[in-house]
Amino acid sequence: MVHAVPMLIAFSVAPLGGSESVTQAVADAVQIVRDSGLPNRTDSMFTTIEGEWDEVMDVVKRATEAVGAHSGRVSLVLKADIRPGHVGEIEGKVHRLEERLSAN
Fold it and tell me: Taking the CA of residue 73 as centre, how many other CA atoms within 13 Å lie in the half-sphere pointing to its CB?
């Protein structure tokens, strides 16, 4: 696989165990995503980022490490949409869906 292919990564990372605040751990991870400069969106379940393989995976790694600083055990769920030749899909996919819904 060529690593310059654009992709979307949706991930959820959270501490397991420990007595520290889950909210603070997740906030630390999301701050890393936002500071990355990559297109991103956070909702109640996942954070989605868009970029090339190496840059996206680096952000996921650093976000996971930030959560790990709060707990000795971390849960990471990751889903990828790898679509060569397509950029701007973090907005584009939602836009196409909304257009289809408004046409009904």
Answer: 4
Average pLDDT over the chain reads: 91
Give the type of residue at 100. R
Please name each of the domains of the chain with its CATH number: 6-103 (3.30.70.930)
Backbone angles phi and psi of 11, in degrees to 5: -140, 155
- Angstrom distances, CA of residue 79 to CA of 21, 35, 69: 25, 21, 23
Report the alpha-carbon distance of residue 96 to residue 7 in Å, rounded.
17
Q: What angle do CA 24, 30, 34 make, to 5 degrees?
A: 140
- pTM assigned to the model: 0.85
Helices 53-68 and 22-35: angle between axes, nearest 10 degrees: 150
pLDDT tens-digit readout, 29-50? 999 999 999 999 999 999 999 9
